[in-house]
Design goal:
With about 260 residues, the chain is an all-beta fold. It is built from 1 helix and 20 strands. The protein has one domain: Jelly Rolls, CATH 2.60.120.200. It is globular and about 40 Å long. About 45% of the residues are buried.
């Protein structure tokens, strides 16, 4: 992420030499001189995991979106996987030479782009489900819509950069990951993809409606952790706390601002 930070109630964070203060969870703060960071995965053994409190149940409405910068599309790579062991869930990443959303069970494709966008460039990827249709967006444009049924058991694990820490390892950068319990429209996805989401109908001091995880990777907590800015406490743990397995924090030039 570039400029916007989301902070929890009463937090004062000193990041990159600037002091930002906010009394509301959904309050945006500009930090002078700070461009933010992304996670860089090495494609060898880097991964991260996160909490899933408040996530949608199996076959419920959802939106998952993120910015990614992959280095190649020659191998299967998972950007994010929400799963119940290896029995049920959803994975989004590169599959069969393109970007796709797939079921965990049976590895069945739910929606896929007709072609892989250029490597070594930032791309916004979003997936939605509305009880009936799986829709995949790349850079704000709908690239596929299918009615294949997703897995029907509720995931209890979240992985970033891999499906299990060993397989389908992602090589590239990731930033601004958001998970919603609502089906966002194409217009909403396009409106927010280049800046942080705004507060919901409950006001600036409330949780953003439907947003249950928001990972900017702009903070640096002890033990290789990164905060969930949604207010739901779904913090990210890098590489299970093992330095060799932690994706690196690098300056982000993803096209996202306040």
């Amino acid at each position: 992420m570039t400029l916007l930070l989301q902070r929890g109630e009463g937090e004062d964070d000193i990041i990159g030499g600037g002091l930002g203060t906010c009394s509301g969870i959904a309050c945006p703060v500009d930090v002078p001189g700070y461009r933010g960071t992304a996670l860089k995965f090495d494609g060898v053994d880097d991964y991260a995991t996160a909490g899933n409190s408040g996530f949608t149940t199996a076959m419920g409405t959802t939106t998952i979106e993120m910015w990614v910068r992959f280095e190649s599309g020659g191998t299967d790579q998972d950007f994010i996987a929400l799963r119940l062991n290896l029995e049920s869930g959803l994975r989004i990443g590169i599959h069969a030479g393109t970007i796709a959303a797939r079921r965990i069970f049976g590895d069945r494709v739910l929606a896929a782009a007709p072609a892989l966008p250029p490597a070594n460039e930032w791309h916004h990827v979003a997936y939605t489900f509305d009880y009936t249709t799986n829709v995949l967006y790349v850079d704000g444009v709908q690239v596929d819509a299918e009615t294949t049924a997703p897995d029907d058991r509720t995931p209890n694990q979240v992985w970033l950069g891999s499906i299990d820490g060993v397989n389908s390892l992602f090589r590239g950068q990731m930033d601004e990951v958001r998970v919603w319990t609502v089906t966002r429209s194409a217009a909403e996805i396009r409106a927010d993809m280049k800046h942080g989401p705004v507060a919901g109908q409950n006001g600036s001091d409330a949780l953003i409606d439907g947003l249950v995880a928001y990972w900017t990777f702009d903070d640096d907590r002890s033990g290789g952790r990164s905060a969930d800015r949604s207010g739901h406490g779904n913090d990210v743990t890098l590489g299970d706390g093992v330095a060799q397995r932690m994706p690196a924090r690098v300056p982000s030039d993803a096209p996202v601002s306040d």
